[in-house]
Design goal:
Largest sheet: none
Helix content: 40-55%
Radius of gyration: 23 Å
Shape: elongated
Structural class: mainly alpha
Strand content: under 5%
Low-confidence stretches: none
Length: about 80
């Protein structure tokens, strides 16, 4: 990311001193249609490396259904947690 110019820094400094009510947002369109919105698109949970012993057939099944088998196992575990 490139550094801000002096003018940009001054503009941001001036904006930061304004209250929310003093900022003119009339030229920003209001978003009313959320049909294409994606929930948690940029959310990445903290990952913890762990060693786990899985039955060979269980691991083979996940690997045969997805290249991202670890993500699939995580999803299956989350579904289990949600239902219990």
């Amino acid at each position: 990311m490139s550094k801000l110019t002096r003018q940009q820094q001054q503009e941001l400094g001036a904006l930061s001193k304004l209250s929310d009510d003093d900022i003119n947002t009339t030229n920003i369109a209001e978003l009313n249609d959320w049909t294409d919105a994606e929930r948690a698109r940029f959310y990445r949970p903290l990952k913890t490396p762990v060693t786990i012993r899985l039955d060979a057939d269980v691991l083979a099944w996940f690997k045969s259904h997805s290249d991202k088998y670890q993500t699939a196992i995580n999803k299956a575990l989350r579904e289990y947690i949600s239902s219990h």
